Amino acid sequence: MTRLGNTQLSSFADLEHIREELLSRRAPSTKSVHVCTGPGCAAKGSPKLYELFCAAVKQAGADVEVQAKAVGCHGLCECGPIVLVQPGDFFYQRVEEPDVAEIFRETVLGGRVVERLLYENPATGEKADTVDKIPFYKAQKRIALAYNGLIDPTKITDYIAEGGYSALSKVISSMTPEEVISEVEVAGLRGRGGGGFPTARKWRSCREAEGFPKYVICNGDEGDPGAFMDRAIMEGNPHSVIEGMLIGAYAIGSEQGYIYVRNEYPLSVERLKEAIEQAKELGLLGENILGNSFSFDIRINRGGGAFVCGESTALMASLEGRPGEPRAKYVHTVESGFRGKPTNLNNVETWANIPQIINRGGGWFASIGTEKSKGTKVFSLVGNVVNTGLVEIPMGITLRRIIDEIGGGIRDGKRFKAVQTGGPSGGCIPTEHLDARVDFDELTKLGSMMGSGGMIVMDEDTCMVKVAKYFTDFLQKESCGKCTPCREGLSQMLYILDRITDAEGQVGDIERLEELAELLEGTALCALGKTAANPIISTIRYFRDEFDAHILDRRCPAKECRGLFRYEIDEEACKACGICLKNCPADAITGEKKVPYVINQEKCTLCGTCWEKCPFTAVLKV
Amino acid sequence: MPQDRDLIEQIVKRYDGDTGMLIPMMQDLQSECGYLPAEHLRYLSGRLKVPMSRLYAVATFYSSFHLAPKGAHEVTLCMGTVCFLKGAASISETICREFHVEPGGTTRDRLFTLQAVNCVGACAVAPVMLVDGKYYESVTPTSALEILYDLATDKATAEKGG
Amino acid sequence: MLGKMSLHRSVKGIRKGKPVPTVTIDGRKVRVKKDATVLDAAKKAGIWIPTLCFHPAVSCDASCRLCMVELDRGDWRQLITACNYPVRRDIVIYVSSKGARQARRGVMELLLARAPESQELKVLAERMGVKETRYPNVTESQRNCILCGLCVRICEEIIGQAAIGFAGRGADRTVAVPFRQPSDDCIGCGVCAAVCPVGTIKVRVHQDQQEVEISPFKSRAKLLVCRQCGAPIVSMQVSERVLEQLEMTNCEEFRERVHLCPKCRKPRTAARLEATKIYKKE
After folding, report:
1. Which residues from A are below 8 Å from C146, CB to CB?
2. Of the residues A79, A390, A403, C97, which has the fewest C-beta atoms closer than 10 A?
3. Which residues of C sit within 8 Å Cβ distance of B?
4. Total-model pTM
5. What is the CA radius of gyration of chain B?
6. Chain B closest-CA separation from residue C35 CA (Å)
7. Spatial contact of A410 and A456, defined as CB atoms under 8 Å apart
8. CB C187 within 8 A of CB C159
9. Looking at the structure, do residues A347 and A451 belong to the same domain, yes or no?
């Protein structure tokens, strides 16, 4: 870590001075190789690549100006591990350990490209030698993810060199709390965790509330399955969150903040802890920040493993050492929240946007996006698309553009069926609405919601009834169990869905589900319960025929629900190898050499082993 | 046991006896002991002057807490949407059937504890399985079983040699 | 005189600037103190709203969702729980509207499905006009517990023992004693049984062992038995607690009487009164 002489910054001038010093230390000729260690690439072993590159740098000797950095999630996880090289904007995909030496020798030191590691457009076969030529990145506009891929998240100096903490400096030296809130108001920032509540309004209410002390909380309990945007921010650029919270605390009048990170993200906790330590060392957290009377400290709490703790009152209960059960919000948390005091809670991505809003102005932020949804949003685009990963795009872009242009379309030549947005509180959007513009309000009109940004693309082989059951099962396990409608209602809905997928659906089941959905929406205590039936209702709305097929015909059109389709052996494709017969646990297959094998439907238990094991794909789902 | 008391005292001191930090305290305790032993919890309850019923409520509410000793290895299956769509459910079924264990539980021979979690954020390489923190990508029922059988052989070898 | 007092009070209110909001509930207008609940307003207006988890002695967490009513929001109506909605300005509430009754019926049907054997619940349902439930029993309920939490809250907030609490989460949530072992914190007062609205918790007296048991928690406490006839009186710990809190000048006599059951106490009390010559036997 670059030593800054153990200085505690005691004024804005100090911070500027440090930044200038850091920038001057950077020789323009410094070559650097950035290895992505975000969740997707790390799962594929990128930390080892980083180690190898570090070793190569060391070996190169002290007279060669070269450095290796481990950076946060760059976004195109599908093509990971990703390695970037500067100068030259080189972008390499699917890098493996044997490639390290070549990249270092050829590109890092020699400035030459290694063709085979370049990104290749699967549709056109075209290779892209720089990042901006890759369609996945072209349509993106990165604000929250701006510095992922550029800075080393474990070094505060990297953040400062890129302008980090200058927003804080500006705020403390030249803005009143009210002016800060006004700037955020002009920006039109709305909560990025799913609620979409106007951030400035929340800050102002908290500021005006009676009571002391006031608390500022960062909700890092990202629980929607399929979503990892907040993780990428916490691990890729933790200082953006800290700076955002500092600015918010200043505006609201708070001296104590908490970051609540879900238990399943230990690396996020580590990165944030490190970042807080480094900020404290420099005097950017603690007493009398930058020589001003403003003091602020942050504490990190880990969740215990409960999705419901993403709900603000449940989170606060958890912070108070109690089970994460939500409470009524007739009195808002900005008035009485954590420990009964005025509390302002915002999502990770919301906080991460603040420094740039202050630096570049609310007007700049408001120039991006739509009339009611300003700025950009980070989405995790996953599922059956070609390019899976994280994308940050201006609000208002259509689903079609996201899935086709950025996502590269559906993989394996399949057809698009639906995209699930908003996690378990959201719903699915079918083909006919692909031209819907993505923002807070448009998707809600279609029966879903933008939510925290999860976007799960499903192809024609997906059974939508099973999807509805999956989310209901998830919510039933995660429900806190406090209120009757959510606890009992989810069990009742799951019971009906179980029957439907077990070939025991009854006429009237859909109406029963709709009745329960209406009951939950009106009477559940918190947002988890109120929106719990959304996945079911939206799939019924757009895929009613599939439900009818399950219930009336005892048939699963997508051939996913066991018992609602059959296995048959394709006579032409069968090579009579005998593997299916050998593995069949029910002795339901008969056959002999040179004659196509046959499945006895009476004996068949539909376990699917033959389908899995056949090397000639001769077993068909019918 | 005196050293256990010391452990609790250490933990309580670490958080200045702040009862709001009960969950981090219990997490630290579980890190040390591998699970939450009843006697330790009772001592903690007395020390913090927080009723035992509250500690028990917290210990049973959050999925990450275990009140019984865990297995030698921690096997985590991601059941997030993408992993699920790619067949995580059948991987789970297969493991449960083969090893006679339920998600959240431990195999009888204490070889491993099986946990199902909601999303580890590695959706691009689904289905994902973790063994002691190590990621395994694009897992199938067959490959999952192989990985776990390897754990058993390692154990057998270790026991033989040890 | 009453008239004068109420005028004085409302004048006082105006002078201090404290708002006294009006709640129009099913057409009837009542005025309540700021931060009083809609349920308070309903009581004042003489309108019955069914409740289960509400009890004036303990904190309110609106978990049963039975007391749903509609709040007029201009162009739409919001369903809210009456027991904890704070009145801060003039509002209009509908208790008997279709939407409100449908919501309450739905919740009650879910409860009936959960606790099919509770007579008390059926009685309440009848009073609400709900004769049966369309839902099957799908959750395993510990003997008809509806998880209202009254027992938990009263043991913690009033008795101060917190011997029982919630355990688990979601459909597996139960009211339990720590580690499912009989609790040492239980003093056997039986208040949990008294407050349980569905008759799930019961007090069992084990005469031979001189113990009282709280079922289904299996917690036991020693009983104080009558020195004279051996009949069970009350849990010893309860009796000790009460004694701790009292300063009696005539301690000896009181302590003697505490060890007698009501039946055996009567002749003794009579004898004492005779002795003090307050009442003379003719």
Report:
1. 484
2. C97
3. 152, 156, 161-169, 176-179, 183, 185
4. 0.90
5. 18
6. 28
7. no
8. yes
9. no
- pLDDT digits 0-9 by tens, A271-312: 999 999 999 999 999 999 988 899 999 999 999 999 999 999
Structure tokens belonging to residue A236: 């890729």
Residues A483 and A531 reside in one and the same domain: yes
B117: which chain A residues are within 8 Å (Cβ-Cβ)?
Answer: 264, 305
Same domain, A216 and A291: yes
Question: Among candidates C156, C166, C225, C167, which has minimal Cα distance to C192?
Answer: C156
Written as one letter, the residue type at A440 is F
- Which of A526, A552, A578 is where one domain is finished? A552
Q: Which of C102, C107, C153 to mutate to test the interface with A (most CBs of A within 10 A)?
A: C107
Number of domains composing chain A: 5
Q: Do A306 and C169 touch (CB under 8 A)?
A: yes
pLDDT digits (tens, 9 = 90+) for A245-265: 999 999 999 999 999 999 999
Could you tell me if A476 lies within 8 Å of chain C, comparing CB atoms? yes
CATH no. for B73-161: 3.40.30.10
Q: Do the Cβ atoms of C178 and B61 come within 8 Å?
A: no
Residue A60 sits in a domain of what CATH number? 3.40.30.10
The residue extents of the domains of chain B are: 2-61, 73-161
Is C169 in Cβ contact with B60 (below 8 Å)? yes
Task: Say if CB B69 and CB B106 are below 8 A apart.
Answer: yes
Q: Identify the domain boundary among A462, A496, A530.
A: A462
What ipTM describes this predicted complex?
0.90
Q: Which residues contact B160 (CB under 8 A, 6 or more apart)?
A: none
Contact C99 A328 (CB under 8 A): no
Query: Are residues B122 and A39, on separate chains, in Cβ contact within 8 Å?
Result: yes
What is the token pair recorded at C19? 């708002």
Cβ proximity of C38 and C23 under 8 Å: yes
pLDDT digit string (tens) for chain C, length 282 residues: 444 444 444 444 444 445 789 999 999 999 999 889 999 999 999 999 999 999 999 999 999 999 999 999 999 999 999 999 999 999 999 999 999 999 999 999 999 999 999 999 999 999 999 999 999 999 877 778 999 999 999 999 999 999 999 999 999 999 999 999 998 899 999 999 999 999 999 999 998 889 999 989 999 999 999 988 889 888 999 988 888 877 765 677 777 788 889 899 888 888 888 888 766 665
d(CA C167, CA C147): 11
Residue C1: exposed, middle, or buried by beta-carbon count in 10 A (0-12, 13-18, 19+)?
exposed
Structural domains in chain C, sorted by start? 19-128 (3.10.20.740), 150-275 (no CATH)
Q: Give chain A's residues under pLDDT 70.
A: 1-7
Other C-beta atoms closer than 10 Å to the C-beta of A352 total 32
